Amino acid sequence: MDVFEAIQKRRSVRSYLPDEVPEEKIERILDAARLAPSAGNMQPWHFVIVRDAEKRRILSRGGVFAWFLSESPVVIAGCGNRKASPNWYTVDTAIAMQNMVLTATAEGLGTCWIGSFSENQVKRVLKIPEDYRVVSLLAVGYPKDDRSLIDHVSDLVDRKKDLRNIASLEEFGNPFDYNTES
Prior knowledge:
By secondary structure, the protein is an alpha+beta fold.
């Protein structure tokens, strides 16, 4: 699968099979994060891989939209070192996590990016040092065939805007007309 196909196929998965994710797939996902660009090549990220069912259960109670983390066989906490890169750790960690999402998709896995969590709870449960901030959590696993109602509703409201509505040519508001035939 090429990168554009992974971008097109990626969706937020909130219902997972209990199957374990093979170690080699996790390593490939982490390697994709490692290869991400960062400001000044600081690479201010650290990723905590959570497979333990009890820890995933605790993490699932930390936010309104995190309830399914207990079902996901893997949760990855993306942390950024705010001292190493005070201005860019959030952006750099997010770029690395997007690499993870696309690689997981290419590996046949589903993911869901979680921004709804209690940072204090995550830091306490995963023993994350003070210098690090939790940027996001990422659920990873094999999607269930039976998508939840929230997945179907998300599909309805998650229609992507036309390129003409999100891009301008040379100046904001100057229409970006592209030839859809080419």
